[in-house]
Every structure is written in C-alpha cells, then in structure tokens.
C-alpha cells in the first residue's frame, strides 16, 4: 500500500485551533465577548474572510455564539462542553438528573479518597459561601453549583470534572427560577455538611450516602413539580 503524504492543515483550521486555545486556556471566558474582528485580523495577520470562516466553524460547534449587532461571545469553554450541551438540549430534566445521580455518588467517593488539604479548604469555603446566600435563591443556586464543582475537582479526574460541569450547568439553567428551593434549603444544609464531613474524614461510603441523599431530595422535588404541571419534564 502506498503511503499518502500528510496534508498540511488549512489556514482556517490553524486559526480556529488558535481561537480554541484562547478559550480553553481561560483567556476568553464563557459569557465574554471575543475581541472585535479588526483587532483579531491585525493580531493574527490574516484576512477578514479567513477569520470569519474560523469563527463560523466555532459557532457551528457551539463554542462561540454570534449576537447580531453585539459581536461574538464565548458559549462553551471546550469542544467537549459544546458537544455535551448540544446533547443535553435534547434531554429531559429528569434524564439529566438521573444521570447526575449516579455521577454525584461516584464523585463523592473519589473526592473522599483523593482530596488534598487544598481541595478540602476550597470545598469548605464554597459551602460557607452558599450557606450565606440562602436568602437569595438565584445567588444560592450559583454558589451551590460552585460548591459541587469544587467537590468534583477533588476527584482529580479531568473527564469526570468536564462531564459534571456541563451537566450541572445545563440543569441549573433549566430549573433556575422554577423550583422553589426554600423547602429544600434546611435539608440541603444538613446533607451538604454531611458530605463535607465525610470528605474531610476520607470516608467514601459516608460521602456516597450523603451525595445520594442530596440528589434524591432534588429529584423528588423536581418530580413533584412536574406532576403538578409546574414545568415540563
């Protein structure tokens, strides 16, 4: 069999890869507008058409989002995240929550087994921040997500962290402003504290049980709301 000469990546592909690197490195954060076209053209030393093709490719993958009259914004922090968001948009809330149920339990176990002192400090700080915002449901939800992501980071499993972040963000956007979290706050304070304690004591079984209790309460509340017609499944 005759070997084929390698094909050099097109300029558009090379530019798209540079833009992806900017996003994945955190230089351009999710929700931020990327630099205007003239600035990028000058920095990269390319034509407007080449830049537009590269940007359009990332819009197609879901990493960027064009807003008419307002520029182009970062929509996802990775190609994996963009692909996950496309898939999750075709899923029901209960489907996402059921998958998260299994993921949350394994994350709790691994966090208890692998956490460092620095991880534990970060987890405790995020928990304190969320509990201090219980009077503000929207702020509490955001802080609670940050707490759970801190727990996920304690697993030191990059794939699990990426998957969890995407699923949690999708769920947050769907239920934010819909569920009444006031009834859950007292119970969540107890289960969150139990989870942190288990991670601190490096007890995988106790951590898994706390995570199971936590996600089951959310699942029950969501199921009841759907049955009452408060939101679509």
TrEMBL record:
Which keywords label this protein?
DNA-binding, Transcription, Transcription regulation
Q: Which Pfam families match?
A: FCD, GntR
Q: Which residue intervals define the domain HTH gntR-type in the entry?
A: 9-77
| Superkingdom of origin | Bacteria
**UniProt xrefs under SUPFAM superfamilies:** GntR ligand-binding domain-like (SSF48008), Winged helix' DNA-binding domain (SSF46785)
Q: Name one GO molecular function term.
A: DNA-binding transcription factor activity
**PANTHER family per record:** REGULATORY PROTEIN GNTR HTH (PTHR43537:SF47), TRANSCRIPTIONAL REGULATOR, GNTR FAMILY (PTHR43537)
Protein's recorded name: FadR family transcriptional regulator
Organism of origin is Brevibacillus agri
């Amino acid at each position: 069999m005759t070997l084929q000469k390698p094909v050099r990546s097109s300029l558009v592909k090379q530019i798209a890869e540079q833009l992806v690197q900017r996003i994945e490195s955190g230089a351009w954060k999710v929700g931020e507008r990327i630099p205007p076209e003239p600035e990028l053209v000058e920095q990269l030393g390319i034509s407007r058409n080449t830049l537009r093709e590269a940007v359009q490719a990332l819009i197609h993958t879901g990493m960027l989002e064009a807003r008419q009259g307002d520029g182009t914004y970062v929509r996802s922090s990775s190609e994996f995240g963009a692909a996950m968001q496309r898939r999750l948009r075709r899923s029901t809330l209960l489907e996402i929550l059921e998958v998260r149920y299994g993921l949350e339990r394994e994350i709790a176990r691994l966090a208890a087994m692998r956490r460092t002192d620095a991880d534990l400090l970060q987890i405790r700080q995020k928990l304190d921040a969320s509990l201090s915002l219980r009077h503000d449901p929207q702020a509490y939800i955001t802080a609670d997500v940050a707490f759970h992501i801190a727990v996920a980071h304690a697993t030191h499993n990059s794939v699990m962290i990426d998957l969890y972040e995407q699923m949690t963000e999708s769920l947050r956007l769907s239920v934010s402003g819909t569920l009444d979290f006031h009834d859950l706050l007292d119970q969540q304070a107890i289960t969150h504290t139990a989870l942190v304690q288990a991670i601190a004591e490096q007890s995988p079984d106790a951590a898994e049980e706390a995570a199971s209790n936590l996600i089951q309460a959310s699942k029950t509340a969501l199921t009841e709301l759907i049955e009452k017609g408060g939101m679509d499944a």
